[in-house]
């Protein structure tokens, strides 16, 4: 992550000192993996493409990553879904991408966890726009929107998420080899608990209404905080 995100994550973990932002920036400048694999924007500044998502989990983007270097259980593909409102990311590593696996991912990771969405934005992948998936979405009255080459920004949120996953994978798992899939869920957790520039909040906070409890928080403080939250919820 960049220096600003690193400083914010340290602050949420309970650390603070006056020069922490400057120190985080300097640390990132000396980080070999960040300098080697960090994303450098080269496009000129332009207006944002506004895509309306009226409430959390009403609009999802879906995309595929791969093939990646072979990992355990022959997994080399990743299916990624991102909510346009909270920026919450769901992802699953797979050995192969089939229409049945896409349907299973949608059912288990989106519909059963967050409810039936209003819109799902797909790219031009054959597995994503197959008739089998169209029938599945039609069964639950989910509107399918397909991004086109001439208007790729329609699914730009998921493409950006894919870039984050690949970037962090290169930085973190350079020596992991076959264990990269086991480390994948740590990467996913890091993305979910990192502050986004667009919202100013972490996806975890926007999804669950609270930040992640710091591992430095004493046990008795956790009990006190839970009691206080329960009292507030009863008002």
TrEMBL record:
Pfam families per the UniProt record, alphabetical: Integrase_H2C2, rve
GO MF terms held by the record: nucleic acid binding
InterPro entries to which the protein is assigned, alphabetical: Integrase_cat-core, Integrase_H2C2, Retrovirus_Pol_polyprotein, RNaseH-like_sf, RNaseH_sf
GO biological process: DNA integration
Domain Integrase catalytic span(s) in chain numbering: 50-211
Protein name, as recorded: Integrase, catalytic core
Organism of this sequence: Corchorus olitorius
Lineage: Eukaryota, Viridiplantae, Streptophyta, Embryophyta, Tracheophyta
């Amino acid at each position: 992550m960049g220096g600003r995100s690193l400083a914010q994550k340290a602050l949420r973990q309970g650390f603070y000192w006056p020069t922490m932002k400057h120190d985080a920036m300097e640390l990132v400048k000396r980080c070999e993996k960040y300098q080697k694999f960090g994303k450098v924007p080269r496009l000129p500044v332009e207006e944002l493409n506004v895509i309306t998502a009226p409430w959390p989990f009403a609009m999802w983007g879906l995309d595929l990553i791969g093939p990646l270097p072979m990992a355990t259980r022959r997994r080399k593909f990743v299916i990624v879904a991102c909510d346009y409102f909270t920026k919450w990311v769901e992802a699953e590593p797979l050995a192969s991408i089939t229409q049945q696996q896409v349907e299973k991912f949608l059912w288990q990771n989106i519909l059963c966890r967050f409810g039936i969405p209003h819109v799902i934005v797909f790219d031009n992948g054959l597995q994503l726009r197959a008739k089998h998936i169209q029938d599945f979405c039609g069964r639950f009255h989910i509107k399918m929107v397909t991004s086109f080459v001439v208007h790729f920004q329609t699914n730009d949120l998921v493409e950006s998420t894919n870039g984050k996953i690949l970037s962090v994978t290169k930085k973190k798992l350079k020596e992991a080899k076959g264990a990269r899939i086991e480390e994948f869920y740590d990467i996913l957790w890091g993305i979910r608990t990192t502050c986004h520039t667009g919202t100013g909040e972490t996806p975890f906070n926007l999804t669950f209404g609270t930040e992640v409890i710091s591992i430095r928080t004493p046990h008795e403080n956790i009990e006190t905080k839970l009691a206080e939250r329960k009292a507030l919820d009863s008002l």
